[in-house]
Amino acid sequence: MDAVQVGQMQEMIVRDLMEQAPPGWTQVRAAATSIDGYMQFSARADVPGQEPDVMWPDTATIVTSDLSEAMYKSGKGTWFSMACTVEPSGEYHFTFNYDQPATFGDREPAEESWINDLRRHPRDWDNIPDWHLVKQRYTEDEWLASVQRYKDWLASDDQSPFTG
User: How far is Cα of residue 162 from the mean position of the Cα atoms in its chain?
Assistant: First the structure.
């Protein structure tokens, strides 16, 4: 996807957050973590004198789940987590984490999910963070071979789970 389409997706997220925010809100904060098709999304609106209001914006959640795929760049990969802040004026800011560990609270995905996420969104070896399980379990040549086996499996008619 190109930058214009990604920008349109971000604007859809912001628009939905603003529409779903409660009266009197002063800022909305959304965050998402996405690994191997599993995503955790949260949104909270600040309202003066109240506890932050937890929001459940359907469109923002769905579009965010597609955003990591849309932002994939060959060799660079895609983000592990993102944060978005929105002001009542409509001003907004997105931050994307490509390199730091991401957390899912008390529902961590299986270790294999971290590895499969990089098979789906391959990165050049130098762009894989040192903390990542891929760097702990594979040499560069082993990893490149694993990614190729995954691509070959995707292109095949094999219905069994990938065991790479």
Answer: 22
Domain 3-155 architecture = 2-Layer Sandwich (3.30)
Which tokens sit at 128? 């894989």
User: What residue ranges do the domains of the chain occupy?
Assistant: 3-155
Dump pLDDT digits (tens) for 26-82. 999 999 999 988 889 999 999 999 998 899 999 999 999 999 999 999 999 999 999
Q: Which of 89, 109, 93 is nearest to 101 (CA)?
A: 109
DSSP string, 99-113: SS----TT-PPPHHH
Q: What are the φ/ψ torsions at residue 19 (nearest 5 degrees)?
A: -65, -35
Taking the CA atoms of residue 97, residue 102, residue 105 and residue 108 in that order, the dihedral angle to the nearest 10 degrees is 140
| H or E element in which residue 158 lies | none
What is the distance between the alpha carbons of residues 60 and 162, in angstroms, rounded to a whole number? 31
Strand ranges across the sheet with 38-46: 53-55, 38-46, 27-35, 81-86, 92-97
The answer to whether 80 touches 129, Cβ cutoff 8 Å, is no
Q: Which residue has the tokens 């060959």?
A: 74
Supply the pTM of this predicted model.
0.88
> Letter for the amino acid at 77?
G
